[in-house]
Amino acid sequence: MSLSQIARSIKASPTLALNEKAAILREKGDPVIHLGGGEPKSRAPMDALLAAVNSINTGEVRYAPADGIPDLKKSIIRYTEEYYHRKVNPENIIASSGAKQALMVALQAILNPQEEVIFPVPYWVSYPDMIKLCGGIPVPAPAEDGTFYPRLKDIEMRVGSYTKAVIINSPNNPSGAMYSKEFIAEVVEFCEKKDLYLIMDDIYHRLVFDGKKPFSCYDFTKLSVENSKIIVINGVSKQYAMTGFRIGWAVGNKKVIEAMANIQGHQTSGPSVLLQKAAVGALNGIQSSVESLRVTLENNRNILIDLLSSFNGVKVTKPDGTFYCFADFSAYEKDSNKLSQFLIDKVMVLTVPGKEFGMDGYLRISFCGTIKDMTEGIERMKWALDPNSPNELYIGDRKLVRDWS
Ligand SMILES: Cc1ncc(COP(=O)(O)O)c(C=O)c1O
Question: Which of 16, 173, 179, 234 to mutate to test the pocket of ligand 1 (most atoms within 8 A of CB)?
């Protein structure tokens, strides 16, 4: 069988593969703890559920326009005004099947083969493969000082004649780092000066802690949305706990949005009307679920940081937002794939290897699950990794024996 060059260059999504692995182990009856997940466990907002039910009850579920239904665009216009301080028009918006598809059609709309896209390290696992799917070249930009907080020079030094775009994801998956206003202002100014697209992946933008407030990249440009090459990506998946609804969107200039809609129109058509209605319900309805999720996550973050700080040898940077902590386990094992596999095999704890995010030696540990799972998961990891641990560990009535050093 001969597959395309592009197909051969693309890996399976490691986070989705991990979800499958957890499901298979659970089905076998193994007491797995999944600390690698990327979705909040709270219920979707009632307004979202009611809107979807009302829509299905009409019995008329038809095709949607390729760029989204007018009601959802109206909600996104209001949302953009509230959180981005910009008045946009329906032509500046496209609704897609998740932020993932919005990102993908944005890249397809702007990239020619061999053009480069720069993004800070650590990065969301899908960026390199999405760029490759468009024939482009991913250019990861590690911070020179080794932190999770890049500086403009880390990006600047990688810009060349093939550079087409920069992707910024803040707060960041996997590090939880929220980049400073100064940094975002510099990147906005720099991309304008160099005439580059700037894709702001804001999927976690309201999930921030310690009194931090989400801010808008448009606050740092004098250009109108129409004249700007900023493309803002957002959606209901994370902050409204609606990952399975698959609704995301992009805001940008008319031309780029039209190109994205043309592409999406041929690929999938518009996202399901039912799910778009649910997103309208979430965006227009009572907003308390977002704050309550944010508070829960902040509390979970604090507990996880406490648990990890009792772990000799693990270096932790406190996440400013999201629901991920990216901890340095290199004192135990430098190969994060090996370490992650070891933890699954020995104590049935799932974490995501840092290598997938561009930093080996790290593990991504999620704090969107229950406190019980986090506490027990970290206890098991400690037992497996600390050579001074007792010889045995009981998980329910299952006895594990430490037969490694
Ligand atoms: C940084 C980032 N961007 C985009 C997405 C995709 O979001 P969605 O589920 O809406 O497609 C994710 C999901 O994990 C993410 O972490």
Answer: 173
Which atom in ligand 1 lies closest to the alpha carbon of residue 124? Answer: 1
Ligand 1, residue 247: give the atom nearest the CA.
Answer: 10
Question: Cβ(235) to ligand 1 under 6 A?
Answer: yes
Q: Which domains does the chain have, with CATH numbers?
A: 5-43+288-401 (3.90.1150.10), 46-284 (3.40.640.10)
Q: 81 has which bridge partners? A: none
Residue 397 above 90 pLDDT?
Answer: no
Q: How far is the CA of 131 from the centre of ligand 1 (A)?
A: 15
pLDDT of amino acid 311: 85
**pTM for the predicted model, two decimal places:** 0.96
Question: Residue of the nearest CA to atom 7 in ligand 1?
Answer: 99
Instruction: Please state at what angle helix 126-133 crosses helix 98-110, rounded to 10 degrees.
Output: 40
- How many angstroms is it from 100 CA to the middle of ligand 1? 6
Cα→Cα distances 78→22, 66, 86, 357, 385, Å: 39, 21, 9, 34, 50
Tens digit of pLDDT for each residue in 221-251? 999 999 999 999 999 999 999 999 999 999 9
Q: If phi over 0 gives left and psi between -120 and 50 gives alpha, with beta otherwise, what is residue 29?
A: left
**CB-ligand 1 contact for 382 (6 Å cutoff):** no
In 3D space, the residue among 258, 205, 213, 203 whose CA is nearest the CA of residue 235 turns out to be: 203
Tell me, using a 6 A CB cutoff, whether residue 351 lines ligand 1. Answer: no
Cis peptide before 150 (omega within 30 of 0): no
**Ligand 1 within 6 A of 368 CB?**
no
Q: How far apart are CA 352 and CA 363, in angstroms?
A: 6
User: Which residues on adjacent β-strands are paired with residue 398?
Assistant: 395
Q: Tell me the pLDDT of the chain averaged across its residues.
A: 96
Higher pLDDT, 16 or 392: 392
pLDDT band at 17 (very low <50, low <70, confident <90, very high): confident
